[in-house]
Amino acid sequence: MGMVSLGNDQLNDLMSGGIKKQHSCIISGQNKSHILTMVQQCLTCRKNKQLNIAYITIEKSPESLFSEKSQPSFDKNYILNCANIKLIEIAIPDRAIENNNMNKLLLSIQLQLDAINNDFNMDCLILDSLLPSTLSILPNQNKRFFSSELLKIIQTNSCTNILLLFNTSLLNHLIKTSDQVDQFIQLDHEEEHGFTKHHLTIISPLSSRRCYRYILNSIGQIQFQHQLC
Fold first, then answer.
1. How far is CA 4 from the centre of its chain?
2. Domain total of the chain
3. For a 10 Å CB count at each end of the chain, is N or C smaller?
4. What is the CA radius of gyration of the chain?
């Protein structure tokens, strides 16, 4: 079936080669810059150069990817000039947000995703994110409903899905309710004696968890130090 590379050999090895084609992975965490570093690595990975990859944002410019702290080796021009990579923004109706009309919001996104796929024939979708920041004002119940239903919509496409989630409180909900997601990656950190320790946890559908400590190396890539559990 083949794999989509995450652009990091260590992480690919930990995930049995990467993400299986036509499968889904959710990457969650509060450290936005480290998650977007992973996106940058995936987009610029030459192993993925034959794939049509769409980086899609909801209600924000996709070029915000470039405003985040980048790895020193990050090749912005490669992304902008590569015919196989598209940066696309999806808009959602303001009135639907004001009225908490979840079905109208989801239908609007579904129609736009279908149009993108028909035009570009995506092999890999990277979505930022399962809960757009503009919807952070919604009640928790609506947030859970929106993210779960959006996930179902995305999984009707026959492509590989890399889905970002910056609202970490929704992660456990999606782990429990999403039987079509193969892997979850959670990034977190803790402060200890003035130092920041970064952790990455790989969660499988069978609820097994493997946690690793990592740093950003001299070229800005995630480098694993050792397994914690």
1. 13
2. 1
3. N
4. 17
Alpha helices, H only, the chain: 9-14, 32-44, 64-67, 76-81, 94-98, 102-120, 140-154, 171-177
Other C-beta atoms closer than 10 Å to the C-beta of 191 total: 8
Evaluate whether 146 touches 96 at the Cβ level (below 8 Å).
no
pLDDT band at 180 (very low <50, low <70, confident <90, very high): confident
Q: Angle at CA 16, nearest 5°, toward 153 and 68?
A: 60
* The pLDDT value given to residue 1: 54
Q: Are 102 and 132 in contact (CB under 8 A)?
A: no
Query: CA 48 to CA 32: how far, in whole Å?
Result: 23
pTM of the model: 0.94
Place of tokens 């509060």: 30
Q: Read off the pLDDT band of 213 (50, 70, 90).
A: very high
Q: What is the pLDDT of residues 20-49, one digit of tens each?
A: 999 999 999 987 889 998 999 999 999 999
pLDDT-based confidence at residue 88 (cuts at 50, 70, 90): very high
Which residue type, as a one-letter code, is found at position 65?
L
Establish how many alpha carbons lie within 13 A of residue 176's alpha carbon, considering only the half-sphere containing its beta carbon. 6
Residue 72 has a pLDDT of: 58
Range of the domain at 86: 3-227
* Residue for token pair 């990457």: 27
Tokens of 6: 């995450």
